[in-house]
């Protein structure tokens, strides 16, 4: 008998994307009685819960009432999976669509070794269906940099393999691991929380895995850049929180703070071709909030820009 899987689709507005995602999940070849779709709604203002219940009545809908962010919102789904006895839980962005055999391939990979904490699929750009957005992630511990493999057309160049992390955009987690490793760290709110969780799992004796046979398409712009103030804020603050939480060396801190962050910050002010890009205010508040221990959602002064 196939393992039971809870598919957690976290939503915050974006109803059209959510309905398309759920429609793709209806086409899964995985046995229907062995998986459930759980929409966890972070207080959407576009009628998401009602429309999901109407269009996909078999879907379980949990309404949070407030926007908890990615980490805390998904933790609601992870707790649901723990309480209701699922073997695996798949975190899946609502702006994705999946191949019919995606879940079968993820579970098959996870079942090969009980030491696998999480499995990630190959993720393509929706607008360029053969261009890879993510094929597993690696961590450069000397510089404190987390990178996802990808940004190229798929020619079979990324084999199934152990990886340092998989993106929370589509991440199959073994529920039993949660008892030992814990849930996502809610201080991050959004970004870096899944990477920190994968490191925590590795240090507990597990590892993460990537399989290219499981396929997902992500509706992220091809030219997406982190040049909005709130994105610069989260990427700056949360990277520092990641380095602190994973206890990197002082050499890594020097490289991250001086060679990387300071150079980027000065470039945003001084280089003519960067002056039109946003991020200066977000980076400043990201640094400030990390050092004073302010985590969770970004401050209004950043979100409003």
Give a structural overview.
The chain is of the alpha/beta class and 305 residues long. The protein has 2 domains: 5-218, Alpha-Beta Complex (Spore Coat Polysaccharide Biosynthesis Protein SpsA, Chain A), CATH 3.90.550.60; 229-303, no CATH class. It is 38% helix and 24% strand. It has 10 helices and 13 strands. Strands 1, 2, 3, 4, 5, 6, 7, 10, 11, 12 and 13 form an 11-stranded mixed sheet that branches. The protein has a two-stranded antiparallel sheet with strand order 8-9. Strand 6 (116-125) and strand 7 form a beta hairpin. The protein is globular, with a radius of gyration of 19 Å. The protein starts with a strand and ends with a helix. The mean pLDDT is 92. Residues 7-181 form the Glycosyltransferase 2-like domain. This is Glycosyl transferase family 2. GO terms for molecular function: glycosyltransferase activity.
Number of strands: 13
Please, how many helices?
A: 10
CATH topology of the largest domain: Spore Coat Polysaccharide Biosynthesis Protein SpsA, Chain A
How many domain regions? 2
CATH C-level class of the largest domain is Alpha Beta
CATH architecture of the largest domain: Alpha-Beta Complex
Distance between the termini: 51 Å
Binned strand content: 15-25%
Main beta sheet: 11 strands, mixed
Helix content: 25-40%
Average residue-wise pLDDT: 92
> Cα-atom Rg, whole angstroms?
19 Å
**Structure classification:** alpha/beta
Order of helices and strands: EHEHEHEEHEEEEEEEHHEHHHH
Shape: globular
Low-confidence stretches: none
GO molecular function: glycosyltransferase activity
Organism: Chloroflexus aggregans (strain MD-66 / DSM 9485)
Family: Belongs to the glycosyltransferase 2 family.
Pathway: Cell wall biogenesis; cell wall polysaccharide biosynthesis
């Amino acid at each position: 008998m196939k393992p039971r899987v809870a598919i957690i689709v976290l939503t915050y507005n974006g109803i059209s994307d959510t309905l398309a995602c759920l429609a793709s999940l209806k086409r899964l070849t995985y046995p229907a009685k062995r998986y459930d779709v759980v929409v966890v709604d972070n207080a959407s203002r576009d009628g998401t819960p009602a429309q999901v219940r109407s269009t996909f009545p078999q879907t379980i809908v949990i309404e949070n009432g407030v926007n908890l962010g990615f980490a805390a919102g998904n933790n609601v789904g992870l707790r649901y999976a723990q309480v209701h006895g699922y073997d695996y839980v798949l975190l899946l962005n609502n702006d994705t669509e999946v191949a019919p055999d995606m879940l079968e391939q993820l579970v098959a990979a996870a079942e090969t070794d009980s030491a696998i904490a999480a499995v990630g699929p190959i993720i393509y750009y929706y607008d360029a269906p053969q261009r890879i957005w993510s094929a597993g992630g690696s961590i450069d511990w000397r510089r404190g940099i987390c990178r996802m493999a990808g940004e190229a057309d798929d020619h079979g160049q990324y084999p199934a393999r152990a990886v340092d992390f998989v993106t929370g955009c589509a991440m199959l987690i073994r529920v039993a691991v949660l008892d030992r490793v814990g849930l996502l760290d809610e201080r991050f709110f959004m970004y870096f929380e899944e990477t920190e969780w994968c490191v925590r799992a590795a240090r507990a004796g597990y590892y993460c895995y990537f399989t290219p046979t499981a396929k997902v398409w992500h509706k992220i712009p091809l030219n997406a850049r982190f040049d909005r103030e709130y994105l610069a804020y989260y990427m700056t603050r949360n990277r520092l929180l990641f380095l602190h939480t994973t206890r990197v060396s002082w050499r890594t801190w020097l490289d991250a703070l001086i060679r990387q962050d300071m150079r980027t910050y000065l470039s945003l002010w001084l280089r003519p071709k960067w002056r039109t890009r946003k991020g200066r205010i977000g980076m400043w508040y990201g640094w400030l909030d990390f050092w004073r221990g302010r985590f969770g959602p970004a401050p209004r002064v950043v979100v409003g820009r």
